[in-house]
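Hello K.,

You asked for the raw outputs rather than the summary table, so here they are, unedited. I folded two proteins back to back in the same session to keep the settings identical. This is the first:
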Amino acid sequence: MDGNIGKKLGAEFIGTFLLVLGGCGSAIFAASALGTTKDVVGIGGAALPVAGVVNHGIGYLGVALAFGLTVVCGAYGLGHVSGGHFNPAVSIGLATAKRFEWKDVPAYIVTQCIASIAAVGVLWAIQAGRPGGFTIGQGSFASNAYGQENGRIFYDLPAAFIAEVVLTALFLVVILGVTTKAASKAQAALGIGLMLTLIHLISIPITNTSVNPARSLGPALFERGTALGQLWLFIVAPIIGGVLGAVAWKLATGGDDAQTGESEAEGVEAT
């Protein structure tokens, strides 16, 4: 590892912390109506309003934008330090595409996972102040899931696996594309954030959207139960997708460092 690894890991911690706190926080605090009197199936486990209650929540679109905005902000603020991965699948995908050093991948992944756990710890501390009390259940921290569990309804295992693999692969293709030398560095973070927003708009109803093993880890560890039992899919599928996306990019463009540029050091990468 180079001499700046401490700074890079610090940036990865902050960026991943921001992503999980902002994205999952929006799902559990702001997705549903204010003053809901009865819980029904909700976004990320948050309650949605019963009939006749005015919905002041941000809904799917708001949660999708929140995740995208965390990436835009994190990439602009920290991408020049660490490359702004904020996602183990991105780190592995970039290494597969020879845009990141394999020797640094383990440290990045460990840092991203610790940051996710820390962010959910903060969400737990805030949830503890919920009016009427708070008991941890499935979806309390916007965990990812498949099938039907405890009132939350998502798509089945095969559909969830396909969605997570394909969407993560497309995410890597976009990341690799917008961080080439030919692309505008000033707009790279915006393109990546918009892609993550689109991914959430597609897949919140399918799996509550992962495409990021670190994002899935923190909520699952706190919720335990089904969320922890299903965590394997949200680790395996995004990593497979990240590798496939990198391979697809290289096959489609013939891209190597000489042709596409070393975006990790020079530009902005994020997830």
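The second followed immediately with the same parameters:
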Amino acid sequence: MRQESYGLPAYKISTGAGELKGKLSLWGWVIASLILAILLWEAIVLVGKYPTYILPTPMEVWQRFLQSLADGTWWTHTRITLLESILGFALGFGVAAVFGYILAHWRAVERLLSPHIAASQALPVVAIAPLITLWFGYGLLGKVIVCALVVFFPILVNTIVGIRNVPRDLIEVAQVYGAGWWQTFWMVELPLSLPVLLGGIRLGLTLSITGAVVGEFVGADVGLGVLLNISKGMFDTPLMFVALITLALMAAAFYGIALLLEKILLAWHYE
């Protein structure tokens, strides 16, 4: 006899319970891993008897974080890196998505530009960043452009692959029924290319932080990259750990936002 609850089939309830249990189990593993890592870190410091300037304890890092939070140092540098990453990603995504769409549809343009794009990617961003800083200055614009360069290539590649994976038959059917360019793009190409495109967005968001820090290393007076340089010069290793952990948490947050966006936009894909 099939069980029902509030008019819902039993298999629906059991599926939802299974998903909830899986999520709780995943979070349990994450929390347990963090606790284990902190305990291992503490044990290494105690056994090795390392001085603070070599390897601080988790408590020393936490106290340094509270101090930098209280005096405004942490937020002053974090908000700039966050702003650079978001603006750099937006610029890189916009340019790469447009170029990717063009290259996906016009192979002659791709054959003309692909060698130059590939050659540009062979140059390390660290080597290009000083030149960008020289051209655009030490302000926000230079860091945003460095971020955009880091983000550009993965978004470009995923856009090309995503658009070209759309079945040609579906595009032709839409055109037969009178769909124009915009309708074909919005109703056919974009939805079907989203799974691949969102993979590029996920990677690009996390790489944007790397671009911001590289730009700050080359030349800046504020940002987490600058904070790393300052703390290194002062042998303030706990502050270095604060900056590094902040960068890691920012990357994890960006990745989580991308996953959430993917789940929302691709709800139809997982049904």
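The two ends are 26 Å apart (CA to CA).

Happy to rerun anything if the numbers look odd on your end.

Regards,
P.
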